[in-house]
Structures are given as C-alpha cells and as structure tokens.
Sequence to fold (305 residues):
Amino acid sequence: MRKITDRVFGGISMTWPKVIVFAVATAVLTALFLIVPVLADSSLGRMGVYLDAWILFAVIIMSNCKKPLESAVKVFVFFLVSQPLIYLFQVPFSWQGWGIFRYYGYWFIWTLLTFPGAFIGWYITRKDWLSALIFMPVIGYLAVTAYSITRQVIDGTSSHIFAILFCVGQIFIYIFTFFPRIRDLSGKARTAAKASVGASIALPLLIAGFLGLRSNELGLITAKTLPGIESLSAEATVHVEDESVAEITISIPEDAIAAFNVHKYGSTIFTVYDGDRMYAFLLNVEDCGKEVILEILPSDTFESG
Fold:
C-alpha cells in the first residue's frame, strides 16, 4: 500500500505535457459521465457537479510538484483547461446548447481559488503537523459529503453508494499518506504530532457531524410568480399543508409573487385565499444536482359559494 501511495503522491514527474493531458482526459471523462443518461444519474455523474474527484486530482498534482509556486500554477492551469472543456464537449448533446456555459461561473470561481489553495496545499508534501492541519478542511468537506449522501441513500432519494466509499476512501488515504508517522518521532515532536493529527481528524469530523445533522435543512429563500394569477389583493393569505417542506407568504400581491422559505426536498399542497377566490397549487422541491428546482403546478381556480 505504501509503495502505491508513494508512487501516486510524489513519484510522478509532473511535467507540463502531463498536466495538459491530465486536464483533457479528466474533461473528456467528466463530459462523458454527464452526457450518457445512465452515468449522469450515477455516482460518476457527480464528477461534473461536485468537488469530490477534483480534490483528488489537485492533491495528485500538488504532491508531485517540487515547489509551492509550481504547484499553484500547474493546478490553476489544470482547472483552467479542464473545466471549460467539460462544457464545450457537452454543447452538441445538450438541449441548452452554448447556454450550458451558464454553469461555468461556479467552476471559474473555484479555478481562481486553486492558485492560492495549491500554493498553500503544496506543504502537504512535508508530511508533518502542517500537512495534517492543511487537510482539516478537506477531511471536513469529504466527511460532510459522505454523511449527506448516506442520509440520501437511507431515505431512498439516492443510490450513490460508490460516492460514499470514494469520499471515505480519500479520507483514509490522505491520513495514511500525508499525516506524520508518529512512531518515527520522539519527545516534544511526538507530542506535537499527536496533538496536530488528533485535532486534524477530530475537529473536521465533529463539524461534519454537526453539519450533517442539519443536512436536510435546505435553507433556500426565493420568490416565484404564481402561475395563472394576474394579481392579488393585499389581504391574500396562504395555507401550506406541510410547512416542513416550505413556508410560503405573498410578498408582492399586485404581481402575484410569493416568497418561499424552503426547508427540505419533497412536495406539499398550498392554497392561496383572496376574498372569495381560492387557488390551489402543488409545490415540488427537487434536487437536480446543480441546483434546487421549485416546480409549482396549479389546479383549477375555485369560487367559494
């Protein structure tokens, strides 16, 4: 095991041609996972939406660079090449066409952040207390992600078991490869290493557990125009059957705009009362990967007698 990790995380000559080939290859694979429907709905499809796999790719490049500036530039270029290509490869196959690039903004921000991130991240190659501290947010993110997917699998809303194993596997591999080997230390160095390693593992997991307990709480606040209604009076009210899904209020009555405080995925019926008029709607809150989708389906308009 040690021979394999030493080879992958430090035994590769990370030349510029390899960085470019790596970027193009990962872009092709990611685009393929997103284009093929069966793969898009699997754990592999997460590669085009979430950071799970890209953390691993960045760590591989960082750990095979000789200096922090080299690490920063090469990781930055890797993301600068791979991310736009993912969307470019999807253009002929997507109903959105070139419009699919509207999702690139999120990844462009992360691309910019890779430069300072990879500069600091290079110090994981020291494999001491500093590398353990650098991995704290990484372990926290992977732990929260694994917990969140596990909850979804248990709830029956996801079947991404491989994604759980992938995140947990990364945590163990990073600890095994980059954390200080305490048995090789002595005295104060051994005590300091124990403290940093313990904090680097325990703190992210505690945070992950705290956030995980709140993972079902979406906390999404948005406004939507109610279909089929031109305007409402200032006295219009809303009754929601299941407020655990969302709380709804009329925010701009003259334009029939309602405010939605969405708590979780699911469906509920809500009714708008405005004088002798009553409008019933079905609200569906769905997870489409890149964003939370709110679907509002109107029923017939009833006149109360």
About this structure: Residues 127-216 form one domain. The chain has three domains: 1-121, 127-216, 220-303. The radius of gyration is 24 Å. Residues 231 and 254 are 5 Å apart (CA to CA).
